């Protein structure tokens, strides 16, 4: 971290600041110029409060030269990480499609969808049992029963399952769940992240509606700092001034995340667009942009879905998309 002091800083003020910084376990290298004094902070500066430092009267500017995320940082781990998602590898050239309904609704619904997405080539089945709904009056998911039905679909098809957790107190219910999802609304629920960091579960961490890429990586860091390095990042669109689409899919997040981190990156074109007609193009674009997978909502009867019917593909539409995805992957690999 580099700190530039204002030209009129006295030696006493400078030494006082150095003493304060050294008290926080960093070494301070001083370089006196004609006009400015530059302090180079060496060591683990992740705990230094940059805003506080910047607010001091004698400080002109503060700049981090290394990112505060370490475990997910590509600089310290140049090779792509391949995460095991219930036996399915994701990352490092292994592309996986996660598909299924927004919410688990009935036995026949989830088994039927699981069978059809498997036949089309999906590698994992998704289905929400704990739903983070904007309105408390909307369907909240089937909770424990939903997870049981999802586990039955896993047994029937062999597909590993992905489902969202909202509260660590429910963790015991997730024993059969292969990939635990942290939804966009909980990306910065730090207690949840810390709790999941203490488990050995694979985590699919979705980007928050109004969070930066670096904030997403800091949230991944929370999980990894607890000892759980099985993290998959997910871009699912962010809030902008555009209202035509449900969110704005930030596809550039894919190469940016690959540049900054070794973790796999998947894209959710369903929540990103909110319209089933837009999902295939964005799914193909995600594959072309180098994503390690996509997560797509599929429903056997979108018109009557209890949640997110408008953005759900029918099994037939999903089947068509899978064929196109295969061709895009072939094209970018050849
Ligand atoms: C979901 O995937 O079911 C979901 C609620 O998505 P998000 O958290 O991205 O809104
Ligand atoms: Mn949904």
Written overview of the protein:
With 334 residues, this protein is of the alpha/beta class. It has 2 domains: 2-63, Alpha-Beta Plaits; 83-333, TIM Barrel. It is 33% helix and 18% strand. The protein has 10 helices and 14 strands. The chain has an 8-stranded parallel beta barrel with strand order 7-8-9-10-11-12-13-14, surrounded by 5 helices. Strands 2-3-1-4 form a 4-stranded antiparallel sheet. α6 (213-225) links the parallel β11 (202-206) and β12 (231-235). α3 (107-120) packs parallel to α10 (315-333), α5 (190-197) crosses α6 and α9 (279-288) packs parallel to α10 (315-333). The two termini are 42 Å apart. It binds phosphoenolpyruvate and manganese (II) ion. Residues 102, 128, 132, 164, 183-185, 206, 236, 268, 271 line the site of phosphoenolpyruvate.
């Amino acid at each position: 971290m580099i700190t530039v002091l204002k030209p009129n800083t006295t030696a006493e003020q400078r030494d006082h600041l150095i003493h304060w910084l050294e008290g926080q376990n960093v070494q301070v290298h001083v370089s006196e110029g004609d006009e400015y004094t530059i302090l180079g902070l060496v060591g683990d500066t992740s705990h230094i409060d940059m805003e506080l430092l910047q607010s001091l009267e004698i400080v002109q500017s503060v700049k981090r030269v290394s990112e505060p995320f370490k475990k997910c940082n590509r600089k310290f781990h140049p090779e792509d990480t391949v995460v095991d998602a219930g036996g399915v590898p994701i990352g490092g050239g292994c592309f996986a499609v996660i598909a299924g309904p927004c919410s688990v609704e009935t036995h026949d619904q989830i088994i039927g969808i699981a069978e059809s997405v498997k036949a089309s080539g999906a590698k994992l089945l998704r289905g929400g049992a704990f739903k983070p709904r904007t309105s408390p009056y909307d369907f909240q998911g089937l909770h424990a029963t939903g997870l049981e039905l999802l586990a039955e679909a896993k047994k029937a098809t062999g597909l590993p399952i992905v489902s969202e957790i909202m509260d660590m107190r429910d963790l015991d219910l997730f024993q059969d769940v292969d990939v635990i999802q942290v939804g966009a609304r909980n990306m910065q629920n730090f207690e949840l992240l810390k709790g999941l960091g203490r488990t050995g579960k694979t985590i699919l961490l979705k980007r928050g509606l109004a969070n930066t890429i670096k904030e997403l990586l800091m949230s991944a860091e929370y999980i990894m700092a607890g000892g759980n390095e099985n993290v998959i990042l997910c871009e699912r669109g962010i809030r902008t001034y555009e209202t035509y689409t449900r969110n704005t899919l930030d596809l550039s997040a894919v190469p940016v995340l690959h540049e900054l981190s070794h973790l796999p990156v998947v894209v959710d074109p369903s929540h990103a667009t909110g319209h089933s007609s837009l999902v295939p193009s964005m799914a193909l674009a995600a594959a072309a942009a180098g994503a390690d997978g996509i997560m797509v909502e599929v429903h056997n009867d979108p018109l009557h879905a209890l949640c997110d019917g408008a953005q759900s593909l029918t099994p037939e539409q999903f089947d068509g998309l899978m064929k196109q995805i295969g061709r895009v992957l072939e094209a970018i690999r050849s």
